[in-house]
Structure prediction request, 322 residues.
Amino acid sequence: MNMADKSMTERDLDALLAAAAQDTAQAPSADFMARVLADAEAMQPQPAAIVAEPAPRRGMLAGIVAALGGWPSIGGLATATVAGLWIGFSATPTVLPNGLAGLVSGGNTDYLAYLDTSYAFLEEDAQ
Amino acid sequence: MMTMPLDAETEVGDDALLVLYANGDARAARLLTLRLTPRVFAQAFRMLGDRAEAEDVAQEALMRLWKIAPEWRQGEAKVTTWLYRVTANLCTDRLRKRRSVGIDEIPEPEDDAVGPAEALQDKARLDALQAALNDLPERQRQAVILRHIEGLGNPEIAEIMEITVEAVESLTARGKRALAAGLAGRKEELGYEHG
Prediction:
């Protein structure tokens, strides 16, 4: 009897290994599975806030305000606007010798003709 | 045994589940546990031949996975390959400790099942196989278990054991020859009469 006869055939060994692969003895018990799951849950990072707090809805005005730098800037802008208006009115006697009245009353035709010669026909119609 | 419904979730890859786990998804924790624990436990059980020790090792290997989950980089390594390697290393540590404690500490294969004659013979065969596995040099045992019990391909085993595919082939071939020789003395007792 030689060595090859003594040892198991390859087919028998393969069958035995295949049986071992299916063997329930190597299956973990339910208790052990529960222990592993408990570990997994205990060590699991807490879920991050998946839904971020919804941003407040903004209207068009709020958008414009934000683009201009928020309400403090708007305050400055309003002040500058009012100041500009006041300067505009108070400066008219210097810029327009006859004041605003001079613009809207007599001499209109002269004024228009002065702007553009193509308005000269208006002067003719007026006469 | 816990069962898992065969729903669409089983199609989700391990690494995707691990990312979900790291994001706090409770179902991912459950699915990964159900999927990975049996594989890690079987590997450790065959390597160590002892349930209690296999449970310790499998639990530790999976703890390491839970811990590393937030840093896991998808696509870099297979979760199972990583896990088999961690388990293999933990088993090696255990076996090294046993050697320093003494050979008497090695647990005998458990023998507590009672059943019909055929079942007894199947169990006797499986116990004999486990005893023969326990006698194999550690690297051969590792390779044979990954190839024939876990059913992995040689390239993956090479990655797990950090050796070449040729080295894996050599280890499994030598391991199987040694197993066959180890079981030779009990051939008739185990009902292998031919050959």
